[in-house]
Every structure is written in C-alpha cells, then in structure tokens.
Specification:
This protein is mostly helical and 101 residues long. Helix content is 56%, strand content 0%.
C-alpha cells in the first residue's frame, strides 16, 4: 500500500509538471532562460503570462510532490514506515499532531 502511495505521488507530480510544460513551455521558455522572468518589465506586482506559466510548471507543487513520492518509495524499500523518518526517537506520540513534532 505504501509503495502504491509513493508511485501515485510520483505520477501526480510528474504529470502536473510535464503536462504544464507541454501546454506552456513552447511559448514562454525563452523568457525563462533569458532573464526576463527574473527581472520583469512590469514590476513584481503584475504577473506576466511567462511568470504565470513558470509557477504553473517548474515552480509549482509538482516537483516537490514527485520528490516526496521518491522519498516514500525509498523508505518503503528499506522497510521503514512513513512515520519513522518524521518522529522524534524515544518519544511516544499522544496524538496525531505529535507524530510530526
């Protein structure tokens, strides 16, 4: 079950990133690499279409989501539970929130 969760996270993250790139990269990739994205002419308060395309693709949650999926698969291959990496050793959690503290 954990393996499927990791694979699903990778699929969703990669699908979001690659799908967005297929839709927008052809029109806006030149502004990403020439520096117009990082120094916008209209200022930082107005979002250009190139900046919106960047935040839809490479700057979105897709890349970190795929990385979390890879971490879940890595933990599963080593026999560690999903909470083993995020719990303080020696502490017993009293509630669900305490698992991450």
């Amino acid at each position: 079950m954990i393996r499927w969760a990791g694979l699903l996270l990778i699929l969703l993250g990669a699908g979001h990133t690659l799908g967005g790139l297929l839709l927008t990269a052809g029109r806006h990739a030149d502004s990403w690499f020439t520096g117009r994205l990082w120094r916008p002419e209209e200022g930082i308060t107005d979002m250009s279409s190139a900046m919106a395309a960047f935040w839809l693709t490479l700057g979105s949650f897709g890349v970190p989501l795929a990385v979390v999926g890879m971490i879940v698969l890595w933990l599963d291959r080593r026999g560690l539970g999903w909470g083993a990496g995020w719990r303080v050793p020696g502490r017993r959690p009293r509630c669900a929130f305490c698992l991450f503290v």
